Each structure stands twice: as structure tokens, then as C-alpha cells.
Amino acid sequence: MGDVINLRQARKVRARADRAQAADANRVKFGRTKGQKQADAAAEEKARNAVEGAFREGRLEGEE
Fold this sequence. Notes:
By secondary structure, the protein is mainly alpha-helical.
């Protein structure tokens, strides 16, 4: 005969494990340090400035 288990407790254990797994995924997806965020912002600004600097002088906004 198999072991008797409490289904309510088993569901809670499974739910806790699912939440922990989702939390780990969110930490990987969103968890970046302040330094990493600043480095990304600086690289983005540098790229934007490089593109803007490549245009000829006298270029007006909205003119194509």
C-alpha cells in the first residue's frame, strides 16, 4: 500500500516551488545592478550621438 499524503499540503508545496521558479526567472530577466543600467545607458547615448553626428550640417528637423 502506498503512502498517504495530504493533498492540500502537496498543492501548497508545488505552488511554492512554482513561485520560486518564477522569481528566479524574473531575477534573471529584470535583475540588473545600477552600474549595469548606467553602462547600458551610456552605450546607448554614445550610439545615438554617433548617428546624430553622421548627418550633414544644416539638417533641419522634419526635413527629409
